[in-house]
Structure of TIRAP protein:
Amino acid sequence: AGWFRRLLHKPKLSSVASSLDTSSSASSSPSSSSVESSGYSPSMSLVRPIRLSPISTSDINASGSARWAKSYDVCICHSEVDLELVEELVSYLEGQPESFRCFLQLRDAAPGSAMVTELCDAVQNSHCWVMLITPGFLQDPWCKYQMHQALAEAPLANGRTIPVLKDVDRKDYPKELRNLYYIYMALKENSFRQIRDTIMLYLQELCRSSASRME
């Protein structure tokens, strides 16, 4: 009799699914007001929501962390005409609690060294690469060279290459990056935060993977 009463009071599967669908859409879909205020649609930005893992900042900053296997957390690839914006981004990232280590070519390249050597070393010694794709980027052969070096370093990307579009039509998005979601820079503050969260997500996954191999 007891199990029969419980069966009668068991919620219907359709109502459970409906409630789950409702809560899921509410949590994962941005409101129309937020989309309108930001100036871009979800399809023009990172489609996969960024969910930071339980690995803490202290774990990432620990002396034995896989983070320290490379000299830089992120290499910024940009055109010289966009230097002012890039300096703002670098200042933002380096001012975060994680103190991200950024490679900025005009600041960090060794005087007298070959440009090609510096670009290749920066790509190889960075965990992530931000590609600030602007009209200036598309016209700069050195930017394209660095983009190709990054793709050669990690052909499947795996979160390491972070394209950021600004003042560029979707039709002009480099064909080499079309298998990657990108950040569309409409509101600078939001875009900076997305870049920061993407770098952090990669470092968390890197540390978790390293810890798993050691177990």
Notes: The longest strand covers residues 126-133. Residues 3-47 have pLDDT under 50 and may be disordered.
